[in-house]
Amino acid sequence: MSAIRFRRHAGLLVLLSAFSFQSAYAHGVVGDRFFPATITSDDPFAADELALPTVTLGNHEEDYDFEYTKSIFPHVAISFAGGYIDAHPGPDASGWDNFEITPMWQFLTDDASEFVASAALSFEIGGSGARAVADTATTYTPEILFGKGFGDLPDSMALLRPVAVTGVIGYAIPGTSTESKAVQWSGALEYSLLYLQNNVRDQGFSKFVAHLTPLVEFSMRSPTDAGGTTGTIDPGLIWSGQYVQLAAEAVIPVNHASGSNIGIVMQLHFYIDDIFPHSLGTPIFGGSH
Amino acid sequence: MKTCTLALAVAMLAAPASAHAFLDHASPAAGENFRSPPARVELHFTEALEPAFSGVTVTDDGGRDMAAGDVAVVGAEMDLPLKPLAPGRYRVSWHAVSVDTHRTEGKYNFLILPR
Q1: A156, A198, A212, A272: best to mutate for the B interface, most B CBs within 10 A
Q2: Which fold has domain A3-275?
Q3: CATH code of domain B19-112
C-alpha cells in the first residue's frame, strides 16, 4: 500500500444525522485562529464537514476519495471515509478501497493559546473494499491529533503569529500478523494570510488573497517490524471561503520506496456547519458548544 | 461522485445558510500608524451580527478603556466612538456572534505617533 493511499482520508456521505434546531458550532476556530481543513493529514477538529472529492493524481494511480464527518455530541464526531483507486497498469489494480470509520473526541480547546487536541480511533475495515487494491484484514489506529497557532508570540515576532501547526501521531495495528505494525505521523505547517491581514498588519490584500493559506503538509509511515519509512511532503495552497474551501498540493515522495513521481492532490471541502447551521450542521445530541 | 458534488453544491446554494462572521475590513486597520488619532473604530464583518452578543473594546497599553460611548452593532458592522487618543499603542479586541450563533473573535493593535 503506497504512502499516498495509506494516508487517504476521504469519506462516504452518510445521511444518518437527525435534524436538530439548535445552534451550530465552529469548524476550525480556536480563539483568534481559523485552521483550514488539511488534506493529506487529518486536522484535530470534530466538526461537521465533507471532503468531496479528494483527487490524487500520480505515482501510477489516480485516487478519488471522500470523507464525511458528523458531530454526534459537541466535540465528538465520527468520520466515514472511502475511495476508489484507479491504478496502472490495467483494471486488475483498480477498485474501491476499504471503508474507514473514525470516532474522534476533541478533548481540549484553549482559545487563549490557540491550542486544540483530539483523540481518535480509526477502523479500516478489512475486506470492505476490492480484493485487488484493499487489505483483507482490519487495521486499528489509535491517534492523537493537535493544532497550535502562534498568535501568542511577542511583538518582536509579530510576523510569525500567522504561523500554525497541526499534527497527528498514530499507531496502526493490522489485524493480521502478515502485515507490520506502523507509526503514522503527519502534520502541516501553515501561514494564514487572513490572520496576518486581520490580527497583525493589514497588507491590503484582496478578499480572495486574504483567504489563502500557504502550507506544507507531510504524511509518513514508519513500520515497526520491518521496512523503512515511507511518505510524502506536500506543499500547496488552501483557499477558505464562507462555505467551502479549495485546496491543491504537490505530492512529493520522500524516498524511492515512497514513489518515483511527483503527484498532485486537489480537494473540494464543504463546511457543513455553515451550510446547514440549524440542521445537518449541528451535533445530533447536545446542540452547540 | 460528480453527481454527489453537484447535488451538494446546489443544496448549498439553496440552503438559507449563514456562517461565521469573520472580520472583512476595519478602520483603523491592524498594524496601522496614525499621526491624527481616529475618532472611532469601525469593523466590517462578512456576516450579519447578533447585537446582544457582539462587541468591541479599545484599550491603551495600560489597559484603560478608550471608549467614548456605547458600541453600535448594525447589520454586519460595529462602530465605537473613541476618547481623544494620545500617542501610544492601542489594542482593538472584538467578539462577534453571527445571526446563526457562530462565534468568532479577534484582536489587533494600532499606533498613534507623536505629531
Answers
A1: A198
A2: Porin (2.40.160)
A3: 2.60.40.1220
